[in-house]
Amino acid sequence: MIVIFAPRQLLLALCAAVLLLLSCGRAGRSHLLAAQSTQARQAYWREMAPLCAGYPAKADCVDGDMTLFAGLLCVAGEERGCAMVRDSQGADGRWWRSPRRNPGNLGETHSFSRDMALGVMLYLVSSRDTVAAERWLAWIKSNRSCMVDKPGGGCLVRGPYRFCRDDSNLSCTLTPGNWALLGRVWTALGLELSAEMRLAAGLDSDALWLQTKVAPLGFELHLPAVEVLLKQRLAIDKTSTDKAASILVERQPQNPFFSYLQVGGSAALQQQLFALCPDPAQGYARRNQWAWERATDGQAWRDSMGWDCLFLSQLAGL
């Protein structure tokens, strides 16, 4: 069947086609400009982000919490983050706070913590480094604390397992929730679960969203957010993680990391990052903050270390 257009119909059809092409052209250019803008910002954040001994750090080589932040960078696809966690493991399987602190923690105490252990778990899930995982568990099992010493030497009554031997505030003590979360990671890696992991299975579910309700604003609320991210990557415990993500946003609606955990990447998230993170036109300040672990009313992003912005931008696929 042949359709014959009248001159007026033909003109209208041609106009519609031209408008469509122009519209598509504008949309294409808009997406291209947005992509170029994001790439430029990411390049700037990478350029300004401090390094210490070749690894990510805060300004002035402050790297005491970097195993956690490096694990986050690793799960976002940043190879320097993965390398940092990997190289923070000692020859005996124990993990330290950074490669520069491996071993000995520069002579300081509190050489590790449950917070840092979350970064290790993110690394293990991202890298599937089963050898490192098994070495870590072997160290934990052979370095259990002692509650009652045996006369003449040795231990009469064993205490809890721990991530380090030099904490004075129980910050290295493994909780049932830690064992449950380790069990989920071990399952994902195809490793055999220890008796402690099997015994604690499932105890981390309700504990997660309850923690998001009661944790003080700041780094203590950031920690369950990291656990939400870990479980999202494992695609497990969805009911608990969804509930926890909602609570995080209710409590800190202006935290872009929390927003990502609830809704994922979006144009709104990109705009928020551009508004908060260092701008090449304005420069940067002290570079000593991972902004997403701070209460938003403190405006820690003004002192962003750069790595926090790069992490979230890459994680969200912006």
Walk me through what this model shows.
The protein is mostly helical and 318 residues long. The protein has one domain. Helix content is 55%, strand content 4%. The chain has helices at residues 7-48, 66-75, 79-86, 114-127, 130-142, 176-189, 195-200, 205-214, 219-234, 238-251, 256-263, 267-276, 307-315, and strands at residues 51-52, 55-56, 146-149, 155-158. Strands 1-2 form a two-stranded antiparallel sheet. It has a two-stranded antiparallel ribbon with strand order 3-4. The longest helix has 42 residues, at 7-48. The protein starts with 6 loop residues before the first helix and ends with a helix.
Helices, strands, pairings?
Layout: H1 7-48, E1 51-52, E2 55-56, H2 66-75, H3 79-86, H4 114-127, H5 130-142, E3 146-149, E4 155-158, H6 176-189, H7 195-200, H8 205-214, H9 219-234, H10 238-251, H11 256-263, H12 267-276, H13 307-315
Helix pairs in contact: 1-13, 2-3, 2-4, 2-13, 3-4, 4-6, 4-9, 8-9, 8-10, 9-10, 10-11
